[in-house]
Amino acid sequence: MIRSRILATGLLSLFTVACSxxxxxxxxxxxxxxKPTSTKSDISVEFDDKMLSISPELLNLAQGEKGEFTIVTxxxxxxxxxQGCGALLNKSKNKVQVMGNGKVCTIKVTxxxxxxxxxxxxxxxxxxxxxxxxQTVEQGSHFEIQVKPQQDYELESIEGCGSExxxxxxxxxxxxxxxxxxxxxxSSFDTPEAFTHTIRLPVVxxxxxxxxVQIEDSKIQRQIELLNLHFRQSKLLxxxxxxxxxxxxxxxxxxxxxxVGIQFYLATHTPSDRPFNGINRVADQGFISAASILGSMYxxxxxxxIWVGEKSPEQVDDAVAYLAGTSEVASGISIDYRALANxxxxxxxxxxxxxxxxxxHFLGLIGHITEGPESGHRFLPCGGDTQQSLNCRxxxxxxxYMRNNSVDDNDKRMFSISQAEIMRNWVTSGPLKQLYHNNxxxx
Length: 443
What we know:
Collagenase (Catalytic Domain); hydrolase; disulfide bond; metal-binding; metal ion binding
């Protein structure tokens, strides 16, 4: 009862005060406590007479609130400097961006006469290209340089126009005429020790898309990079011994791990000679079929065709190499989209070797290691003509890429030297010689 009376008395007192002449003051105090207001401050721009207009004329921003001014300059003038209020200039859009800091402040913007544009020319050595390079830039300007090597090449350097490598990016900081850029690309691999030259072959990947098959370009590009590692650097990968818990190739067989000297890159032009990224996307709602293959195939005398799509449940694991010079439906390789390796530049011996295995067939390795006709490669000496060995035949190689599909990917880690010889001869003087000669200028 005592507590109730106190509460009632308190409410009565509040009512009494509210009816007095001080009611407005009390209510104002209550409002101030319940609804704190944020402080905003004015930010203005001071500019010279070379500016045409600024919009808006004033920003009223709370602390931490972002805003921007749009500036239009007179012809042949550019914004030179922006100072004050922590403002930043977006040159490409002629906008000044600022954030409220709780203080009234003024941004000072100055302009200058723009210099006449200068031409930017370019050339390359090796295999790669410039990406979205401007044809003209303002004299004295700063711009970044982007390039794209082919899958078996890498950028070595960029020269000319004051270009330099800065914080992971190639840039020109003060463009002056003449401005010519030279991008030098080099092979990611050395010349093979067992052979006199490297063979390079273009690949076109036909992605037969449906509701299940949606493959990013980057995954296809990584698959080609992985294919090159298998054909060019299997010995290095074995020497690295990066992975614990795996069986090692016997020491007696290591000398026969081949650098095949064949490498692959995504084609750069379509049959009609249009620039191209090497990936042909085709709408195809069914499973991979002869019709979808023939309907999308590029000239097999100029490209290696790879079809990636959905196979029927009973054929998911059945990748197929269609050999040139035979009665097959086409020349190329077809695989289920689930057989593509998810390679991220960290070599993993358990990654799918399906495409590598099928490329072996496509390049002439007809007989498997433990099956197939005796005219196949399984009875050949591991070292071939360059490194004869009576103590090692291909059928002895437990870790060969051409082992059948019952062998784990972990145990497919090498081609032999004699297998490399077969594949190179198949390309240069066998069924694929027309493909090789049509691309002889890319070697």
